[in-house]
Amino acid sequence: MAEGQLWLDPDRARRGGIDLHLAGEAISARRDQVGGAIAGASGGRPWGRDDIGAAFEKRYRSYEETLLRAWAGVGRSLEGLGADVVTSVDANVQTDAASGRRLDGVIDPRADRR
Predict the structure, then answer these.
(1) Tally of CA atoms within 13 A in the half-sphere of 65 that contains its CB
(2) Rounded to the nearest 5°, which phi and psi values hold at 2?
(3) Which pTM was predicted?
(4) Is the dihedral of CA 28, 31, 37, 42 positive or negative?
(5) Tens digit of pLDDT for each residue in 3-47?
(6) 37-41, 96-100, 109-113, range with the lowest pLDDT
(7) Is 111 exposed, middle or buried (0-12, 13-18, 19+ CB in 10 A)?
């Protein structure tokens, strides 16, 4: 922002939005891969089924679920944010072009005073 004006490089902003979306997809894929492996491995309760294992299970399971849910949420959020950035850039470019066309059609009343 310079001198009270906002300057938007639409191509750069679109690429940023696309990159955000791709980062979200990568996080989601990693969560599915690694998070799935974590959930699968813990399903066998490798810490045992005795009293100590049961106490660990009780605490661990809620943390695992919270982590995996948050991890998935971060991926989805970044995917959505990236798509929203691209949509916003396109809407801003279209609005700017439409406004420019309307302004080009305005007649300057001072021009008739010559």
Answers:
(1) 7
(2) -130, 135
(3) 0.76
(4) negative
(5) 778 788 999 999 999 999 999 999 999 999 999 999 999 999 999
(6) 109-113
(7) exposed
